[in-house]
What does this fold into?
Amino acid sequence: MASLMPADCNTLFVKGLPYDFKEDDIGDRFRRFGEIKAIRIAYNWQTKESKGFAYIQYESHESAKQALMKMNGKEVQGRFLKVDYDSKAKPKESYRLNLDNDKNRLYNRDPIKQAKSKQIKKEREKVKVAKLQKHHSY
It folds into this structure.
């Protein structure tokens, strides 16, 4: 896996982290491989709790490569870490776009899609109102 890592890549994707881990906890385990530029933990937007995965950006490619080789499969508090490099070229196969969260970002750039989205919303509202009126007319 490390041999497939692009030469310009210095960011790792780490999943299987304990849910109570903070940036310092991750840094304590990954800092020994080199200077860390940033740690981003994914949080549930509603509960604000960790999702158990994070991105670690190193200053150098070699540091990221060493961390990938040494930490992949390591056990931390009863959980096994899965470490992979972050490829910005395209989303991984398991990536699924969440249109509800990304709707504004995607649709605001394209006026045709934005108009279609508004039209669909209006049609859905009309159907809801019609159902309610039919239900209450009995």
User: Anything to note?
Assistant: The chain has two domains: 2-85, 99-136. The mean pLDDT is 82. DSSP finds four helices and six strands in the chain. The CA atoms of residues 102 and 108 lie 10 Å apart.
